[in-house]
Specification:
CATH class of the largest domain: Alpha Beta
CATH topology of the largest domain: Alpha-Beta Plaits
Strand content: 25-35%
Number of domains: 2
CATH architecture of the largest domain: 2-Layer Sandwich
Radius of gyration: 21 Å
GO molecular function: pseudouridine synthase activity; RNA binding
Distance between the termini: 26 Å
Shape: globular
Number of strands: 9
Structural class: alpha+beta
Number of helices: 7
Length: 306
């Protein structure tokens, strides 16, 4: 008898190259989340599961919450009558192995549930700074830029994108995505630049100095944005200049309308040698949303909690 469990994972992307299932082809890749999670589940449940992530994220992306469907060919011989206690047992074993992920919750799922295909949209936060000397505590959760960005122009571009998104909310993405958004009346893609934050570091004179940290909040993103977030954010930062806008919208639509095409040439720059973002250390997947009718469906049974 098969068993489908939905694990809500929280993990640090600093330790993983990606969630990508391509890593399964490698003999030993402990830097792939798929590989590390699979290895742990085999040791705990004594059978190899099929694993499918709600959102496949790129190198360096953290997840405050990312759902993962774990499918077992045989019903695991474990006590699942109390999800809270079972979570505690799982996390104890995870912590014992010093693995950089945790299980937030666990649900029983019907056979036809797909964590990726059933998801409606996702939210992100992106933290970045101009400073090249951010401290060792911020480094794993903060992206550095390779060059300065005009923050006022960036904010202006983001505001323009929000207006564009509202005006084209059911036509700016792929056909399948537009149909999904129209059917479930998903709110338009929304971005917000937050500027009131700072970090601290010691300079060459050993005095403590602060530097600005900026956050871009992204809401109602298509699920397929996960692997595209680097290109998406990088291009917004590179093109936060008035003279770049005519090219920007053309390339912006090319990326979000055709997500399965090779996007290696997406960045608008000579020979693609100029990248605004050095890494995705500051990118957080904060949540993945499903239709309440799916979660409340009579065939979907939650593991009872005391």
């Amino acid at each position: 008898m098969k068993k489908n469990l939905l694990l809500f994972l929280s993990y640090s992307g600093h330790y993983f190259s990606s969630t990508n299932k391509i890593c399964q082809k490698l003999a030993d890749n402990s830097t792939c989340l798929d590989f590390s999670l699979r290895k742990f589940l085999i040791s705990f449940f004594k059978q190899e599961p099929k694993i499918k992530f709600g959102v496949y994220t790129s190198r360096g992306t953290h997840a405050i919450m990312n759902p993962v469907l774990v499918n077992f060919a045989l019903d695991p011989d474990v006590n699942l009558h109390n999800s809270r206690k079972f979570n505690q047992v799982l996390n104890f074993k995870i912590n014992e192995r010093q693995l950089p992920f945790r299980v937030l919750n666990i649900l029983n799922m019907p056979d036809n549930f797909c964590p990726n295909g059933s998801a409606l949209y996702s939210n992100y936060l992106f933290r970045f700074t101009h400073n090249q000397e951010n401290n060792i505590f911020e480094y794993p959760i903060l992206s550095s830029l390779s060059s300065d960005v005009d923050i006022d122009n960036l904010e202006s571009l983001i505001n323009e994108l929000n207006i564009f998104s509202v005006e084209n909310k059911f036509s700016m993405f792929s056909d399948d995505e537009n149909f999904l958004r129209r059917k479930f009346q998903i709110e338009p893609l929304f971005m917000k630049l937050i500027k009131n934050s700072s970090g601290f570091f010691s300079d060459s004179k050993l005095s403590c100095r602060n530097y600005p940290i900026y956050t871009i909040e992204l809401k109602n993103c298509p699920i397929y944005f996960g692997p595209l977030m680097y290109d998406f954010l990088n291009t917004i930062l590179l093109n936060s200049k008035p003279e770049s806008k005519s090219q920007f919208y053309e390339q912006f639509l090319k990326l979000i309308k055709h997500p399965n095409q090779d996007q290696s040439s997406f960045c608008i720059d000579d020979a693609n040698l100029n990248y605004a973002i050095k890494n995705l250390n500051g990118l957080f997947l904060t949540n993945v949303y499903y239709d309440k009718k799916i979660l409340d469906h009579k065939t979907l049974k939650f593991l009872p909690i005391e």
